[in-house]
Design a protein that fits this description.
about 190 residues, disordered C terminus, mainly alpha, Ferritin, elongated
């Protein structure tokens, strides 16, 4: 193990925090990929590209987090069992949400991660003493702020569309079928 000037107890704590973050990032990346592959509706092209761009950025961040865990002498999580056990984010119960619900879900997850990252940095002396990890987490905050900001812009762009999409979702739930979503994606 490389002597980087951190006590073993600090390394273990920082590794724990990073593996929890890695779990959240992997869940968010998987969810973003799911939405990229399955988005339909009038904003398909724009959201498909946006989600693709965002999961690519998340995958770079995931790699950096995993490599940082290894640099600290820990083992990076690498299984879905580990990710699901430690992730603070949650999978969406609805398998194929509307395009609006997809954007809202991702926005909410970015907000959760931003609060978690800031809380970890502010409240964890082990992290603050590890400048390499602090720099990585600061970059993660910046990336999540950018992604959340873009999603917020998408969500606020067209209030009439949001209302129409919500009405369509309500109708589908009321009658128990998904015919309208299929009809919209076919046009």
């Amino acid at each position: 193990m490389i002597n980087i000037g951190l006590e073993d107890s600090n390394r273990r704590e920082v590794t724990r925090v990073l593996n929890n973050l890695l779990s959240d990032e992997c869940l968010l990346s998987t969810k973003t990929k799911n939405y990229h592959w399955n988005v339909t509706g009038p904003h398909f092209h724009g959201l498909h590209a946006l989600f693709g761009n965002q999961y690519a950025k998340l995958d770079v961040l995931i790699d950096e987090i995993g490599e940082r865990v290894r640099a600290l002498g820990g083992n990076a999580f690498g299984t879905m069992t580990e990710f699901l056990r430690c992730a603070r984010l949650e999978e969406r119960a609805e398998m194929h949400p509307s395009e609006l619900a997809m954007a809202e879900d991702l926005y909410d997850d970015h907000e959760i991660l931003l609060r978690s990252l800031r809380g970890s940095l502010a409240g964890n002396a082990s992290l603050r003493s590890d400048f390499g990890t602090t720099e990585l987490l600061t970059r993660a905050i910046q990336e999540h702020e950018k992604m959340a900001s873009i999603l917020q812009s998408v969500l606020g762009k067209d209030d009439q569309l949001k209302e129409w999409l919500k009405a369509q979702d309500a109708i589908q739930r009321e009658i128990g079928i998904e015919v309208l979503a299929a009809a919209v994606s076919a046009t």
